[in-house]
Amino acid sequence: MDRVMIFDTTLRDGEQSPGAALNVEEKIEIAHLLEQMGVDIIEAGFPISSPGDFRAVQRISKEIRNCVICGLTRANRKDIDAAAEALQGAARPRIHTGLGVSDVHIKYKLRTTREKALEQGVDAVKYARRLVEDVQYYTEDAGRADPEYLYRVLEAVIEAGATVVNIPDTTGYTTPQEWGALIRSITENVPNIHKATISVHCHNDLGMATANSLTGIANGARQVECTVNGIGERAGNTSLEEVVMALHTRRDVFGVTTGINPRLIYPASRLVSGLTGIVVQPNKAIVGANAFAHSSGIHQDGVLKERTTYEIINPRDVGVPDSEIILSARSGRHGLRHRLEQLGYSLDDEAQFEKVYQRFLEVADKKKTVDTRDLEAIVADEVQMFFEETYHLEHVQVTCGNRSIPTATVRLRTSEGIVVEDAALGTGPVDAIYQAINRIIGEPNELIEFSIQAVTEGIDAVGRVTIRIEADDPVSENGVERRVFSGRGADTDIMVASAKAYMFALNRLLAARREAALHRSTTD
Q1: Angle at CA of residue 373, ends 371 and 375, nearest 5°
Q2: Burial classification of residue 339, based on how many CB atoms lie within 10 Å of its CB (0-12 exposed, 13-18 middle, 19 or more buried)
Q3: Are 2-276 and 391-523 equal in CATH topology?
Q4: Per-residue pLDDT reduced to its tens digit, 56-80
Q5: What secondary structure, in 3-state letters, does 236-299 show?
Q6: How far is residue 260's CA from residue 271's CA, in Å, rounded to a whole number?
Q7: CA-CA distance, 271 to 32, in Å (whole number)?
Q8: Domain spans in the chain, listed from the N-terminal domain onward
Q9: What confidence tens digit (pLDDT) does each residue in 169-201 have?
């Protein structure tokens, strides 16, 4: 059976989702899970774009040994040199370079001619091949290009040494019928296409990214470019979990396989969602909260009698845990550790585990049972933080009502152990909390996004708050100039969760300021 290569670009194209910027440690965390999952190629970043991206590609190249590590470039030697340098430690490096091929890109973006663009692309491939053996060439906006010109470009770059040719539907414009016909025509009209792998990179502007990718595979593509949860520019990219499970479930139709361990799909989805702050919609295929939920009485009856009556995928096959496995405060440390290991969390650091255990007890005291999604929220809140806290939330108390002025009292502890307390009024309870925190910390910012999501069902549900704040002036985080910082927090009390989310974002902003100040002092 033919093998389809999975090219994951969560750390490059996926990170281009507005507000989804990841720091180096977060990218490393995701890369390790992608490696465990069996991803064939990890596009680790765009090295020339920023010092932070360069360091991320460099670190991933050194730490990830079982995947091809890819760095994106434009078709110029300066970009290619930066990528080659960042990829030096990789066991299997790949440079991904290219140019637009549609007339609209050539005329308005590149401001050149077809012939000059072709020559520039060929030169880029030849130069990249001097530095690495594996070169991928992207033909940006191929979905809107003149097919005859596209064939010429592909033939020329393959002759120049390209090992993979990436055919992107950059704007998500094409339909599955058009896309399938284009990929098939490439196999029929490019004489040396057998010397390279055809890759498809589809965007979801019209909701057809997964369908187009699968149609591409059916017509000869043997690499598909995708992201976890389908995150990416505008409406996003092809969803890794959808493509992998479609190929796995319908082998009778596609006749191909992948090297992905599907049981790590759900843990990867939760990790990426938690670190980027981008919530997975409940009805998202494969990994959404409702993907394996049944509310209809008829459906419930059918599933209880025979799961396959309404489920074409066993939830355990994609790592979705059994919702009947529930913990209570009486489970103890051993029971909690066992359940966390089942969920894919290996907390070898005893201090980290103890923090999770204490939060677990707090939640268990407020709820009769603690289920899987509660545990995921607790771990995300207590463990997945890759910067040092400047202030820790000790206590928050709020009074509000339809006949009273919302008031909040907040107590924080500094990294030196000093306890600071203040109170403030607000237009609502959350505003009052944030005003009180601002009085203590004094870091000017604007709250630009605030969302609350129930992690579990019922009146005692754990709530997850995700926010984004904008600093008054840009600050460098891992070499990237940023103004927007995300934060998250979870608790059975949404006011506490709101305070935690704000503290997370502020601490991240303060940590970035410290790093920038340290960098300036060492370079002066």
Answers
A1: 70
A2: buried
A3: no
A4: 999 999 999 999 999 999 999 999 9
A5: CECEHHHHHHHHHHCHHHHCEECCCCHHHHHHHHHHHHHHHCCCCCCCCCCCCCCCCCCCCHHH
A6: 17
A7: 11
A8: 2-276, 294-320, 322-382, 391-523
A9: 999 999 999 999 999 999 999 999 999 999 999
